[in-house]
Structures are given as C-alpha cells and as structure tokens.
C-alpha cells in the first residue's frame, strides 16, 4: 500500500523546476515496464507466504534425513535448489525463502549456520538462465536483442559452473 501511495505522490505533485509540469508525464508512465515491477513484487509475496504459513519450518523438518550425509553433498544440494528457485524468483526473494529454511536445517543437523547460509546466499545470485532470475537478465532481455532460448543455453553452463565453484569454496573454507 505504501508503494501505491508513493506512486500517487510521484505522479500527482508538480515539479518545482517547471511550474505546472508533473514529475511523471503520462507518455513516460506508459513506457514503464510494469510486468517487471510485478515480477519482483510477486517474489517478495511468495517469500512472505513461506514465512507466514510456516512452510520454511516444515521444509526444514522434512530435511532431517540429511543428518548423516557428508556436508559437501548438503552444500551442493543447497546450491542447486536455491539456484533453481532464483531462476523463477528474484535474488532477494529466493534468499528470503532459503535463509529461514537454512536456519531451521542447521539446528536439525547440528552444523554451523554459516556453512548453510553462505552457500545459499551466493547461490541466489547465480541464476543466469531466465530473464526473471536477476535484474541484469531482465535488462538484457528487455532490449529484445537476445532470446530466452539463448539465455537458457549459456545460463545453464554458467549456473553449473557457479554451483560447483560455490560448493567447493564453501566446503574448503567453511567446513
């Protein structure tokens, strides 16, 4: 609601530099990519829903089977899952989903919280396959000079490399 009110203020109040001119003219407002704004907002709503419904805690409780698994495989799994989530939600939304689960999981399997949260945080930034994954992807896709199919091919390779690098570095330096 605050953002709607802020938008109203921007559009309706006039500029002090030119008497009688608005801060945002209708022609400029028509050029705004509202689909991108809605895309980011939906990611935040999804993260909030996970938290409010208790889904994060439930997911962590389901992951109790990981208690005896070597930590490198847990880190690899976390990186894969968070990267996939970040392909469909914004980086911020994907980490908002992951951190509560990581906090609950680290208590369940009795490891340092940093060992799970740092790889999850890094992995949330390596979504390169889809336009919605990162702001940079969205900007590049918005130019209409690159197709989703091309982004997917190159992004898949980058995602795999990123997952492997994050897993290895976190295992070597944090475990």
SSE layout and pairings?
Blueprint: H1 2-12, H2 26-30, H3 34-53, H4 55-62, H5 71-88, H6 91-109, H7 113-123, H8 135-142, H9 148-174
Helix pairs in contact: 3-6, 4-6, 5-6, 5-7, 5-9, 6-7, 7-9
Q: Could you please describe the fold and organization of this structure?
A:
With 175 residues, the chain is an all-alpha fold. It has two domains: 1-32, no CATH class; 33-174, no CATH class. It has helices at 2-12, 26-30, 34-53, 55-62, 71-88, 91-109, 113-123, 135-142, 148-174. α4 (55-62) packs across α6 (91-109) and α6 (91-109) packs antiparallel against α7 (113-123). It starts with a helix and ends with a helix.
Give a quick set of tags describing it.
globular, mainly alpha, 175 residues
């Amino acid at each position: 609601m605050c953002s709607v009110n802020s938008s109203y203020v921007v559009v309706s109040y006039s500029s002090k530099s030119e008497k009688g001119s608005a801060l945002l003219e209708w022609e400029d407002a028509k050029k705004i990519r509202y689909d991108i704004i809605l895309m980011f907002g939906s990611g935040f709503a999804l993260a909030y829903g996970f938290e409010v419904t208790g889904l994060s805690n439930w997911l962590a409780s389901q992951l109790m089977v990981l208690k005896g698994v070597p930590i490198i495989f847990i880190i690899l799994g976390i990186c894969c899952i968070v990267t996939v989530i970040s392909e469909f939600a914004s980086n911020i939304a994907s980490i908002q989903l992951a951190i509560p689960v990581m906090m609950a999981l680290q208590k369940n399997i009795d490891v340092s919280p940093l060992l799970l949260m740092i790889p999850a945080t890094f992995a949330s930034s390596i979504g390169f396959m889809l336009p919605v994954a990162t702001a940079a992807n969205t900007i590049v896709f918005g130019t209409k000079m690159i197709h989703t199919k091309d982004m997917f091919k190159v992004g898949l390779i980058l995602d795999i490399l990123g997952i492997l690098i994050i897993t290895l570095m976190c295992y070597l330096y944090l475990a």
